[in-house]
Design a protein that fits this description.
Blueprint (H helix, E strand, L loop, with lengths): L2 E8 L4 H14 L3 E7 L8 E9 L12 E6 L2 H7 L3 E10 L6 H4 L9 H8 L2 E5 L1 H8 L5 H13 L6 H8 L5 H12 L2
Amino acid sequence: MTKSILFVGVGGQGIILASKILTEGLVKFGYDVKMSEVHGMAQRGGSVTTQVRFGEKVYSPLIGYGEADVLVAFEKVEAARWTNYLKEGGTMVINDYEIYSLPVLIGKEEYPQDVIEKISDKIEHVKVFKAAEIAESLGNIKVQNIVLLGALIKALGLENLDWASVIKDVLPEKMHEINIKAIEAGMNI
């Protein structure tokens, strides 16, 4: 059975790196994997998505409306923007984190309120946590993407695989320790 994962967020949050680690790990553990990424206006804080599909045999990386088994939102407004891609009964993992767009920063628009509550009213399986706070407690806010990856791995039931070895395969040695701590923290949420 093929599983479909949609990562959504804002440019600069490490979405593509998290997807790459997931993809490399799934391949290492024997799955057929397809990945597609859309950078959008990533350099300007725009929307970024990555689609990962894995299983015994996967023919396409693309996830259509209502097809994602899990949607991982690195920013809560992005969770709301992409909700229609989650399948009925799917799981949404949301980072309770705000990144303000330019119109919000210059006072032309307001950041939407009660985003998570509105999503939770429509979707049954929503897991919300503050990955940035967890990453800061580990010593580096930049690893919140790996904390989220750990939470996804737990949601998929893949936490018994050797993800530390995948981190060591993908990242430079100086980044191993903090990222292994981050992925473990995410799996322990």
